[in-house]
Amino acid sequence: MVSASAVEIPKLGADKTGAEKPKPTDTIIELSNGIRVHGEITIYDMVNPDKPVLSINTDHNSKAKILEEIEEGAELDPIQVPDSKFISQFDILSLKTGDRKIPPTQLMMLGSGAYARGHWSTGNYWHYAPYGYAPISGKALHFWAWSDSFLAGDSEDWRNTYNTGVGHGVYVHSIYEGSYPDIWVQAGAGQVLSCWSWGPKSGSTYEISNY
Hints:
Elements lengths: L6 E3 L17 E4 L5 E3 L1 E6 L2 E10 L7 E2 H5 L17 H6 L11 E5 L4 E5 L6 E3 L2 E5 L4 E7 L3 E5 H10 L5 E3 L9 E5 L6 E6 L6 E5 L2
């Protein structure tokens, strides 16, 4: 990792790392690219942040199921997210796995208490989450890693990673590495945050939340 525009910030109090973790009663929706979300989210094309392409509140959507049901085997009926108009047809194919080889072209705004969780695919290249993320207000988001670590940062960091092949951003430790698994990251000049990983392990997962 090299210098980052985004920065890790101190934990925002004990209640931010324990009491507000996903609950069995959380309502969950799966998007067509495999990302699972809870709470109120709105998706925009990055270059047109004034016109949403999809708005969801999982607490008021017939396709939502509670987390406990999903963990017991209930299947989700995915909601289609319109493809960004600003990527090639080749790149659209890579969106179906929950990550891709190019940086985000869409923005997901997270309401209070909302979160998004995705699974990395495998392959020895930089994998990028399909969305840039931002809270409805503020500049910081909470990142979790399971099974493998990743980098988090803002658009300046992911452009530097993409353009140079060298990882830029804040290191987010895996929960299995015996280190701090939860990291608060604040955007710098790039404002919008996301995450990316080099050659992640099969089954590794990331979560981005606005707790």
